[in-house]
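U., I forgot to send this yesterday:
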Amino acid sequence: MTKLYEYILAQEDPFDYVYDCISGNRGIAAMEAMNELYNDIAVDCRLHPDDDFEDIIGLMLDHMEEA
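Result:
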């Protein structure tokens, strides 16, 4: 997973890249990994998956930087 995180963080716009992954535009494996992390953060931080997606993705990027 660390290699995926490093790759995402190296992108010109990591936020948009994560959004593309969640949407399924970057392959099944990336979609599954990012959706799992997205859902974990939404639950752990009590954020609404539809309304708080920007906050959730921001927290995802923070998590990737710490990993």
